Amino acid sequence: RARSLGMAKVHSIHVSDASMRPMRSIESARLIAGKGIEGDRYATGEGTYVAFQEPGRQLTLISKESAEAHLAGVARGQVTVGNLRRNVVVSGMSARDLEDAIGCVLMLGDACRVRVHRLCVPCLYNEKLNQAPGLMEAVWSEAGVNCEILAGGSLKVDDVVKLESGSFDASSIDDGGKKAAFYKRPSLRTEDEIESLRTLPMGKPGVDRIAEAYATVGANDAVGIDDDAAHAIRTKAELRAVTSATKLRRREAWKAQLILWAILIVVVSGVYTICVRAISSPGFN
Fold first, then answer.
1. Cα(136)–Cα(142) distance, rounded to whole angstroms?
2. How do residues 163-216 score in pLDDT, each as one tens digit?
3. CB 23 within 8 A of CB 82
């Protein structure tokens, strides 16, 4: 029997189409077991960290109250919980409640069940993206948890969040083989620990997306990319964006031309029909 975590409820739901794209707030979502939230970048394979395969990438949860309390002094209070890029913001339970739920199953709404695998520690990429120095340190223990979707279904704002009683299973926890330094607050890491986290497995599918994200916001040193390489990555990304925008404009122009031609054909056809009927009428001389 599941016990309620106080009055824990879904406060808001957020998804993004792809890595580096803005998050958008939605009133309801469909969770897909073993995959993610329908339309979200991790469900479609377009997330920044898809190269690091682990079940917890499917959905993230964060405590509204805990996050807001620690964001108050960051970037003059301009950073919101939504800026942390988590999927489901929960009210009525703390960051410590979520951490204690690691290894357990949470019930979201009437049908959805998720297994909590690990802390979703903040990254330097998002700190740079938000232009908020100190963001990582401020919310290090309040940035939420990573979850695997065991049972999917509909989820909406104000749905109740419950802990499934007796669901803890230490053997089920899978954090993708993260190093101990990964969970260590950045200001407390040794130089060796920092270096151990800096190297990206270049050549691995999806890693180029991480490199591009970090290079784009000027955090390339954190993933072992020098400034020259970062400049090349940014230039390539900008060229791709321009090319994509040009193709989009061409497609839109072509669609507009097709619509105009379709209208013209309809008009001409109508005029032709009227003329034929007039010629065929008994009174036509």
1. 10
2. 999 999 999 999 999 999 999 999 999 999 999 998 887 778 888 889 999 999
3. yes
Kindly tell me the burial class for residue 5, based on how many C-beta atoms sit within 10 Å of its own C-beta (0-12, 13-18, 19 or more): buried
CB-facing half-sphere around the CA of 13: CA atoms within 13 A: 22
Do residues 116 and 145 lie in contact, with contact meaning Cβ atoms separated by under 8 Å?
yes
Which pLDDT does position 3 carry in this prediction?
47
Neighbours of 260 (CB within 10 A): 10
Name the residue among 156, 158, 151, 126 with its Cα closest to residue 140. 126
Tokens 């792809």 identify what position?
Answer: 18
Whether 13 and 161 have beta carbons less than 8 Å apart is answered as no
User: Which stretch of DSSP H or E encloses residue 107?
Assistant: strand 105-108
Distance between CA 205 and CA 192 in Å, rounded? 26
Parallel, antiparallel or unpaired: strands 59-63 and 88-91: parallel
Beta-carbon contacts of residue 264 (< 8 Å; ≥ 6 apart): none
End-to-end CA distance of the chain: 90
| The residue to which tokens 């919310």 are assigned | 139
Number of other residues whose CB lies within 10 A of the CB of residue 130: 18
Burial of residue 237, with CB atoms counted within 10 A of its CB: 0-12 exposed, 13-18 middle, 19 or more buried:
middle
Average pLDDT over residues 68-96: 93
Please give the Cα distance from 223 to 34 (Å, whole number). Answer: 29
Q: Is the pLDDT of residue 1 over 60?
A: no
